[in-house]
UniProtKB/TrEMBL annotation, chains A, B:
UniProt GO BP: xylan catabolic process
Domain Alpha glucuronidase N-terminal span(s) in chain numbering: 25-146
UniProt keyword list: Carbohydrate metabolism, Glycosidase, Hydrolase, Polysaccharide degradation, Xylan degradation
Organism: Algoriphagus ornithinivorans
Record-linked Gene3D superfamilies: Alpha-glucuronidase, C-terminal domain, Chitobiase/beta-hexosaminidase domain 2-like, Glycosidases
Homology family: Belongs to the glycosyl hydrolase 67 family.
Listed name of the protein: Xylan alpha-1,2-glucuronidase
EC number: 3.2.1.131
Amino acid sequence: MKNLFYAFLFFFCIQSVQAKDGYDLWLDYSSIKTPAIRSEAESFFSGIYFFGKNPTYNAIQFEMEKAIPIMIGKSPIYATDRINSAKMWLGTREELAQVIGLDQQMEIKNLGDEGYWMGPIEFQGKTYFSIIGNKPIGVLYGVFRLLQEIQREQIDFKEELSDSPKVKIRMLNHWDNLDRTVERGYAGFSIWDWHKLPGYVDPRYIDYARANASIGINAVSLTNVNANAWILRPDFIEKVKVLADIFRPYGIKVYLTARFSAPIELGGLETADPLNSEVAAFWKEKVGMIYKAIPDFGGFVVKANSEGQPGPHEYGRNHAEGANMLADALAPYKGLVIWRAFVYSHEIDEDRHKQANLEFEPLDGKFKENVIIQVKNGAIDFQPREPFHPLFGAVKSTNLGMEFQITQEYLGQATQLVYLGTFWEEVLKSNTYRPKSSSTVAKIIDGTDTGQKLTLMAGVSNIGTDRNWTGHLFGQSNWYAFGRLAWDPYLSSEKIAEEWSELTFGPKLSGIEKIQGIMINSHEAAVNYMTPLGLHHIMGRSHHYGPGPWVEGGRADWTSLYYHRAGSDGIGFDRTSSGSNALNQYAPEIAEVWSDPKKIPEKYLLWFHHLPWDFELKSGNSLWKEITLHYDQGVKSSRSFLQTWQSLENVIDEERFDHVNQLLKIQIKEAEWWRNACLLYFQTFADRPFPSEIEQPEGDLEYYKSLSFPFAPGIKPNW
Amino acid sequence: MKNLFYAFLFFFCIQSVQAKDGYDLWLDYSSIKTPAIRSEAESFFSGIYFFGKNPTYNAIQFEMEKAIPIMIGKSPIYATDRINSAKMWLGTREELAQVIGLDQQMEIKNLGDEGYWMGPIEFQGKTYFSIIGNKPIGVLYGVFRLLQEIQREQIDFKEELSDSPKVKIRMLNHWDNLDRTVERGYAGFSIWDWHKLPGYVDPRYIDYARANASIGINAVSLTNVNANAWILRPDFIEKVKVLADIFRPYGIKVYLTARFSAPIELGGLETADPLNSEVAAFWKEKVGMIYKAIPDFGGFVVKANSEGQPGPHEYGRNHAEGANMLADALAPYKGLVIWRAFVYSHEIDEDRHKQANLEFEPLDGKFKENVIIQVKNGAIDFQPREPFHPLFGAVKSTNLGMEFQITQEYLGQATQLVYLGTFWEEVLKSNTYRPKSSSTVAKIIDGTDTGQKLTLMAGVSNIGTDRNWTGHLFGQSNWYAFGRLAWDPYLSSEKIAEEWSELTFGPKLSGIEKIQGIMINSHEAAVNYMTPLGLHHIMGRSHHYGPGPWVEGGRADWTSLYYHRAGSDGIGFDRTSSGSNALNQYAPEIAEVWSDPKKIPEKYLLWFHHLPWDFELKSGNSLWKEITLHYDQGVKSSRSFLQTWQSLENVIDEERFDHVNQLLKIQIKEAEWWRNACLLYFQTFADRPFPSEIEQPEGDLEYYKSLSFPFAPGIKPNW
């Protein structure tokens, strides 16, 4: 009977969590199956002792109440004294000073404000499993790590484990508008319900904070970089304060976007000139008002003089003058200015690729120390694949931060499974050859090679009101991977895929490695059916949904023709010295190799070279044939993903299986659409047949060109 | 041990459903506590036999699989034969013809296509609990009723029970735009994810169909009446078809809004003149295309020549000519035209109140038989309280349908608890004196007094992407009440509140009657703090959020001043013969009584009369004093709701308790805001002190006037 009892209970546990709609993310705790881990965990969780009291410890307790009953079938028990009833110790180094040795204190101190140490501590003949940080937030990070290790059923409670973040500011950039639309958002609408704030606190805000803290994200910018000044009004700051109060115990600071022209729009001034004293006074007053409500406010994120946004150029001032004026206002409160390097003027430069370096290299050393320049991973705009941005390594005395795009604006939006970990790893591992010959983007970002103290990795959020947060279940893996890489830019994307998939589907899921396989191959597949061999910016206009290699008219550098330059003579953008010479913005070691179309990695070929259709590639194939093979391979890969997924039908819960299954079918259609549209279009220039090895592109080019999507998500439609 | 086992199981059942986020609506099945009902249900559900096969029976089975395991702790068992293993019979009258008597067949036949009968049937010495309809949909309705009766723990399986709807078309009107914004929607965004359709079917679509079917809603119009013609394009019809396919087994037909100018926008014609043969051909082709995809398509909902929407007037044609042209296109497929009576022209009429009657009375008898005129409950626009629309009873040979607004555009939107059942009951029970002296609005709507066969009740949906569907948990009660009143317009709102609250919170909840008490009193409270004594249309401009009695400028009948006409001489809109004489559009019996400010029900006083501030009311109070007392009472009522709710803290689950608790606090603030703003404003005309009995209005009128909400939900902001 007793066995039946537990059998039933177990069955019921399973049943009761069957409705897996993805809301719980990677915090979807489940019952631990490995007996040894389960019983050890059960023992430690029966005597949890906190060495202090503070809101972050309350957050730890809240998390334990959620996790532990599900993991081990029993509620956590809190010890009333540190010795007799305690089995697990939680606290800061200072709080535990009396029970740990000096060496260990030193070891922990070196982990910094956000690091943690965990392991067994022997004290007066008894072992206490302990999690210690230098600050409470370190303890929280440690507890999340512990829960993850237990959940993945790989913990050894006898071993010591410590970690600390390599990047200081690990930030989500929401491109959320105040009317709850999200620019380039594909998971519904903004989770910030401004209208109901401050009176109504959606429980989702807390789950959002939990999820971020669990992967080490410690900063969020709540509003769109194409900002509305309204967010800086007192009534909105009152709303922001509520969010900041919720996020604080989770170690998350709030940032806001600052519209450069706010002094005019909100302050009634006639100018926003950064050197005007009234303008400076306006910002000082605003900043003071904000800090009064939010004493740990993070600072401003600014997009200025880019794509029509206002900025210092209107007044003949440069980016440094603009940023420094805001920095002065924020400095007394230790606030930061995060100034975006994604700039290009109304007048079209010869090559948009060069714009950021042209504007920011001359300003090197001129920015105040509480300013960070936030640089997109590549020089164009979050294309499916881009070589790293040439600003990395080009400046010496300027704080540079990385901006990745988690939301899949150009990578299938919410209908495609594209794991971005591999792509980001590729960027971070890219050798910059500056400042040191061994330098990589990661070593610049985390300050290793630059000595930069104020470090930043920002990701443009893919989060919305969809129940599963990210629209596509696998979009969660990109949120997760971003957080993990911001914490440690040297992590391998395979390891991250392993972690995420195990936490999401369970470590013992038979076939979990198949899921990881799909993830690892998904980015290359998407690049193949979208923009192989260095092609870029050939998507549909405005909404960026689907292929649009024929897009022309209007501003040149917003068209596809500008970027692919296909003609009877060949295809590709010449950025060598015979062309725009953007290559020259990279280190000479790179410029030299990449200048040669026979030596450049072929994934970047058409990014830098305009080549004839019969140019011979390493494979011996002509350029035309290689292009067609890549597009065809992309489609085949997407089909293989579906096939692999369907082999998991009986091991994955029905709701999530079906969700991904439907989306993978859409992905195949969209991959075919990309292939057919692009190849039929390029064929009109190449004037060559499709090779027999590939599936012949179907359909009519005019039909593909006729498709229109005025209500595609992520944009503000005009109607 | 066995007891412990069940005790634990029971405990676990409770635990496992603790996270009550409101998604499950009134279908939030829970364990049955009454032993007799539980065991009887257990018995019947162990031998369910379907007399036939069809998709609606699959839907029944789906529902049973959801409900029964939770209700009785055991899965349903399906019988393989109708006699031996069967204990419950489900099927249509025809399917069961061999096992039921002729009298009973007759009785069931009289219940019509959608009616159901349930009860015990004796056959060859054995009793079968049976649910029988004339069509499968009747069986589904019967099953939902059965589950509700069991859930409310009030069923007697020995008794017979039958019911059938009194109104033929019971419809939700979604005001959802194709970009997923919702006009006057306060629960997030449109649940129709057009972009991902047809490839991706959100499980929510099925839950939506279940919820509607469970209360008898059998029609939905998917798109906004301020329609975009795009919905009629083939690519969108392909998406609509997927929804229609999902809804069909649940007895729900899909309707679309038709933009009158679509022949120009989509067809490339130069005119949309309904008498133009190319225009007629355009619509015939469109309709044919739609029916090819959706053979049971319901028809079109049309807003024409109103608030700037295109219509037949542009071509010198009248509403009948416009509607009949569409009706001709739809007639071969038995499709309907639902033509809205909410019309007013660009030129301001003397009194907007009169517009619909002026336009539609002369057209009586001129509409085709597949046209229904959909009339809002009152003549202005869904104000907190309106007298019934004078079109009801004014026409003899025109199909009239009712349009209620479920979404609380003018009634607190999603931050206020306002149960609308009481208000709708008030409207439906209103005596029209036409066509019979005993006629009521309900008797016109359901055809009792008119002989009208094609009957309709439509409700403007309050549904959005919010997890709990309606923003405010109690918004669900309005969706529920609408469905129930559409099914039976004679139901009492108290009974409906009882049903909904029991299904939502559990029939055995101690204090359930307190919840019902809040509901029943909530509409009167809102009217008191918003628009007492017949005041109307004094809300904020455009977004309609909060008070705006000072709104002036622009089109006169979009201002507040136009409606309240406050001045030193008094307040109110004179619609008697000395004023606009709109009263004359009602039956003489009404016009006579309501013309007299001493006889008219005081709730309509200022709707029809302009009266001096010292006019004496039945209470003996002056008009000024009575107005202040009403506003003050509204605030006090809202405070009492919170107090009552908080007395339930320990009996309601934490998540829903906290949700409503937060919103009731907001409601009090908003009630105070209404009271303070309106009384301070009206005082500037009344020039009298506030009576000492009331809480003195606080704040500064200029401050209230300065508040602005450009990002309020439910509108398209301009920025």
